[in-house]
């Protein structure tokens, strides 16, 4: 009996518990040290949750019924406000729990991608100490919920690349149903699941069954909200901000970053357009954006490339207002962390033994999530849900360089072991 092998998983979970504890401590420190009052999208999510709790239905402070994604206010803020009242501290503590789940999922995704003990624990540790992960926990924003959902979806894709599991397909469908409600940009990761199914050695009939299961489960979760919107605003949509965001990213005044609609050619007529209804306003703005892109194909393509560059621009920018010495130090440390992680992740491309289908799935997740933002516009916090993937890739590269061990998917190792026994 090999007691060492049996003890190793227990040591892993002990170390993981310590890492999660460190992550909690940093997030708690951010809540204590960072004084922040909700603004912008946060106010919309808060009003949606409070209106639901108070029996007024889901409607934001501007009177919109489906302008913003419903997932975060519905599943996080509304239950918190129902139990504790309009308590922002309670909501931020729940964000902390989501952060803990994300740390654990970094470990699990790294493990599924073939990382050894060092790599998977390092992947978890990176997200535990990555400063924006702590700071953004103070914000009542959907990115806190999106990060674990994105990681869960990628874990399912990695598992589906090696075995046709109906249970995993159910979980994957559930995660994408939640992502559809929480953050539409993450639906771009459907491409990752598609690649996983292409790589799966199962028969075409089995893979088709998995697709049907995933689609059905996702529809069960997101369908009721779409039916509600059909009844309330006249269209079975997930939200009505698609055309709005597309226009902000594609118009004569677009820069690639967020610009107020007041600064665009639609500014003078925006209030009148809003009165035509959410669906009509979104459709009008969408058509405006498409018309501009068709009329200016070169500018559209150039702007898309600028958005990709902005999306991965190191955080050398300054915050709003006068900054304390502590905030300046944190921003410098954040920039160092970001540049180091991205450089280490890119190092994966130079390591031959890391060129496998698991790593390809991770990179495709990064590419898909970047690509969808090239169509709209960029805000730096939008990249936070995909940053755990960068941390995982960085951990895999560092582990490979340190240990010089060839990485094999865990499932492959198991199959090899079973084959040997036969």
> Total number of helical segments?
18
Largest sheet: none
Structural class: mainly alpha
Total strands: the figure is 0
What is the radius of gyration?
22 Å
Provide the β-strand percentage band: under 5%
SSE pattern? HHHHHHHHHHHHHHHHHH
The percent of residues in helical segments reads 55-70%
- Average of the residue pLDDT scores: 90
InterPro entries: LipidA_mod_glycosyltrf_83
Main location: membrane
Membrane topology: Multi-pass membrane protein
Keywords: Cell membrane, Glycosyltransferase, Membrane, Transferase, Transmembrane, Transmembrane helix
Explain how this protein is built.
By secondary structure, this protein is mainly alpha-helical. The protein is built from 18 helices and no strands. It has helices at residues 3-33, 41-53, 71-84, 88-112, 117-129, 131-135, 143-160, 166-182, 190-199, 204-233, 242-249, 270-274, 278-295, 297-311, 325-347, 357-373, 387-403, 410-421. Residues 409-422 have low confidence and may be disordered. Its main location: membrane. It is a multi-pass membrane protein. It is found in: Cell membrane.
In brief:
The chain contains 18 helices and no strands. With 422 residues, the protein is mainly α. The radius of gyration is 22 Å and the shape is globular.
Per-chain topology:
Elements lengths: L2 H31 L7 H13 L17 H14 L3 H25 L4 H13 L1 H5 L7 H18 L5 H17 L7 H10 L4 H30 L8 H8 L20 H5 L3 H18 L1 H15 L13 H23 L9 H17 L13 H17 L6 H12 L1
């Amino acid at each position: 009996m090999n007691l060492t092998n049996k003890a190793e998983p227990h040591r892993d979970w002990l170390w993981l518990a310590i890492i999660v504890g460190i992550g909690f401590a940093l997030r708690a420190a951010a809540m204590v040290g960072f004084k922040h009052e909700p603004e912008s999208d946060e106010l919309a999510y808060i009003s949606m949750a409070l209106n639901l709790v108070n029996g007024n239905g889901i409607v934001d402070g501007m009177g919109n019924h489906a302008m913003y994604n419903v997932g975060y206010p519905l599943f996080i803020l509304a239950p918190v406000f129902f139990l504790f009242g309009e308590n922002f501290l309670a909501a931020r503590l729940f964000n902390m729990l989501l952060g803990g789940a994300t740390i654990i999922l970094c470990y699990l995704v790294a493990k599924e991608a073939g990382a050894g003990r060092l790599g998977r624990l390092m992947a978890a540790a990176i997200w535990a100490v990555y400063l924006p992960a702590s700071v953004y926990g103070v914000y009542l924003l959907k990115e806190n919920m999106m990060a674990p959902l994105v990681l869960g979806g990628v874990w399912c894709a990695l598992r589906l690349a090696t075995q046709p599991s109906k249970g995993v397909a159910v979980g994957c469908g559930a995660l994408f149903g939640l992502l559809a409600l929480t953050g539409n940009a993450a639906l771009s990761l459907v491409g990752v699941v598609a690649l996983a199914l292409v790589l799966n050695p199962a028969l075409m009939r089995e893979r088709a069954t998995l697709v049907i299961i995933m689609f059905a489960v996702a529809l069960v979760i997101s369908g009721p909200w779409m039916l509600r919107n059909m009844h309330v605003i006249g269209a079975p949509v997930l939200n009505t901000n698609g055309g709005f965001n597309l226009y902000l990213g594609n118009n004569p005044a677009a820069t690639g970053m967020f610009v107020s609609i007041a600064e665009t050619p639609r500014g003078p007529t925006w209030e009148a357009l809003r009165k035509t209804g959410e669906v009509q306003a979104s459709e009008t703005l969408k058509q405006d954006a498409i018309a501009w892109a068709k009329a200016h194909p070169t500018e559209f393509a150039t702007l898309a490339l600028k958005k990709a560059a902005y999306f991965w621009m190191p955080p050398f920018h300054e915050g709003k207002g006068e900054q304390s010495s502590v905030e300046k130090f944190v921003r410098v440390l954040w920039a160092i962390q970001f540049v180091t992680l991205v450089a280490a992740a890119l190092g994966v491309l130079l390591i031959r033994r890391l060129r496998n289908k698991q790593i390809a799935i991770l990179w495709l997740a990064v590419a898909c999530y970047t690509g969808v933002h090239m169509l709209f516009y960029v805000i730096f916090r939008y990249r936070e849900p995909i940053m755990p993937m960068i941390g995982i890739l960085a951990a895999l590269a560092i582990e490979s360089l340190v240990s010089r061990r060839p990485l094999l998917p865990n499932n492959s190792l198991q199959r090899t072991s079973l084959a040997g026994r036969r």
